[in-house]
Amino acid sequence: MTVEPPAVLRPQPPGIPLPRPSRLSQPYWDAARAQELVFQRCTGCGAVPRRPVASCSACSRGRLVWERSSGAGTLYSWTVVWRPQHPTFRTPYAPAVMAMEEGWWLMTSIIGCAPEDLTSGLPLQVVFHPVGGDVWLPYAEPAGGTEPGSGS
Amino acid sequence: MIGYGSAVGAHPYRDVAIAGVFNTEQARRLEGHDSESIATAGALGALADAGLEPTDVDAVIGSFAQELTLSLALGPCTRVFDPLGIPAILHGAQMIAAGQASVVLLAAGGADVYRDREATAPWTRPEHEFVISYGLFTAAEFALMARRHMLTYGTTPEQMATAAATIRNYGHANPAAVYHGKGPFTPADVLASRMVADPFHLLDCSTTSEGGCGLVLVRADRVSGLRSRPVWILGGGSDSFGPAYQMAPVWDMPGKDGYVAGRVGERAGQQAYRTAGIGPADVGVAELYDPFSFEIIRQMEVFGFCPDGEGGPFVADGHTGPGGTIPVTTDGGTMSFSHAGINAQQYQRVIRGVQQMRGECPTGQVPGAEVAICSNGGSGALFTDVLLLGAARP
How close does chain A come to B159, measured CA to CA in Å? Predict the structure, then answer.
């Protein structure tokens, strides 16, 4: 196993596998490129679908609109990965589920702290990093924290 | 809530018997085989175990249904593309119950698929846009579910390690297992193996291997004169909360009727018990899908073997091992017996259940077990399928 430098969680360098947006999700990735986090909400019942959909998965009737998220939330669940899914990933990395303050869940990855700093309910803030191919990926870092691993 | 078991009238699977089961050789690599060839060997072995010929088959189910129809000269034959395990078996049983077939062949196999050992197995790498760039793979997805159980109930890595060591020791004793003789393992051995995706160490995870298998279902009036003792389907169910590996796996994601994603399989288990007219206390052996150690703890709760949140202590107390109240995955499962990736390992939970009901397991036989529960899937994949088998006709 490769010996890693001290385990501060950092964004992945360009070269990792990139998302292929769908027609439904294109607004999400366009907003991300502008470093904005957006999510769909139903104008009829207020529900937030689990991922971009054409009709509301809760009421099947309302119109779906994209809203801007504050990017604030808390840590719901996480793992720290030491065996990469793909050789281009730098370990360790920490895929996580973030509970957004608007009432939806974001799949993301934690940066800017050490794996042992991760605790349930940790306040988090979404930050964007370029990962190549004109894709900006939403990561999450401890709210108000510094980010020792950035820019590397 | 809708169940397909009927409170009055005949049992839906009364006329369906599992008459043949077979596992090919299972190995890390099976030289000279690809997935189709090893699935074909599984199909032929299952027919031989039943004492039937390919010409007896009138329906074939699986990823290679068309290829088997041609290569075994089954035509004209009903073919069903179904890449799943237990749901495919239930489909075959329903075809017999509906009078559409009298002999149904199911086969699967995986070989020569996993070549690039620099990364995790290809079927574990989700490509969906909302997970791909976060480096998710099955261990990480399931870890996100296990973490919630740890936070909510205090479940520990030691308890998970006990679940893994118990199953791996069944495989250690099983001459047909890929990892036969590689143990025995203690929970400490599991905890000492390298971390893959916290809380899962290497030995908390399933292995990868190659192999094939097959099953034959027959209408009950065909069992007399067949080669092997028939085993019966008492009930089954299948639960999903959506596509696997396409979004954040969230334990508390609500479903209808109060069910949550983390407990996926709960409704399916209840359906299966209702159809069978039995409860968890009637089950003698559990051939559960074991992609990760935590999933055994989870299934003990979801299928009603212990109260909610107590799966960790239940496993740590030895209930799932030899001589325990509910021995689990007695051939070594995907952790030790085999995990060929292309749904053979799903059928193999049921094949082992059949062998238990026949009383023919050379190792790990549970004395006196008359009902087996078998499962596929897991929380990180957002689906769980359940099948109840019995030694006696329902």
Answer: 18
Could you give the CA distance from residue B165 to residue B107 in angstroms, rounded to a whole number?
30
Q: Give the domain-ending residue among A5, A35, A68.
A: A68
Q: Is B256 on the interface with A (CB under 8 A)?
A: no
Q: Which of A20, A95, A135 sits opposite B136 (nearest CB)?
A: A95
The residue whose two tokens read 């990926």 is A137
Whether the Cβ atoms of residue B94 and residue B233 lie closer than 8 Å to each other? no
The reply to whether A12 falls in a domain is no
As a whole number of angstroms, the distance between CA B21 and CA B218 comes to 12
| Per-residue pLDDT, B3 | 42
Extract the tokens encoding A32: 């991300």
Domain shared by A97 and A61, yes or no: no
pLDDT in the model for residue B37: 96
pLDDT of residue B117: 61
* CB atoms B143 and A79 under 8 Å: yes
| Regions in chain A scoring below 70 on pLDDT | 1-6, 145-152
Q: Does B147 touch chain A (CB under 8 A)?
A: yes
Interface A–B counts its CB contacts (< 8 A) at 115
The whole-number mean pLDDT for each consecutive block of 10 residues of chain B, a chain of 394 residues, reads: 52 97 96 95 98 97 96 96 95 97 97 71 76 93 98 98 98 98 98 98 96 98 94 98 88 95 98 97 98 98 98 98 98 97 93 98 97 97 97 96
Inform me whether the C-beta atom of residue B223 falls under 8 Å from chain A C-beta atoms: no
In angstroms, the CA B347 to CA B277 distance is 24
Report how many domains make up chain A.
2
Report yes or no on whether pTM surpasses 0.80.
Answer: yes
Say whether both A81 and A121 belong to one domain: yes
pLDDT at res. B355? 98
Question: For residues B342 and B83, what is the distance between their CA atoms, to the nearest angstrom?
Answer: 8
CA dist B19 and B223 (Å) reads 7
Spatial distance between the Cα atoms of B375 and B358, rounded to a whole number of angstroms: 18
From the list A29, A79, A106, the residue facing B147 with the nearest CB is A79
Nearest CA in chain A to B126: A85
Q: By residue range, what is the domain housing residue A45?
A: 22-68
Instruction: Say if CB B12 and CB B194 are below 8 A apart.
Output: no
Q: Do A101 and A37 reside in the same domain of the chain?
A: no
Token duo for residue B206: 């399933």
Residue A121, in any domain of the structure: yes
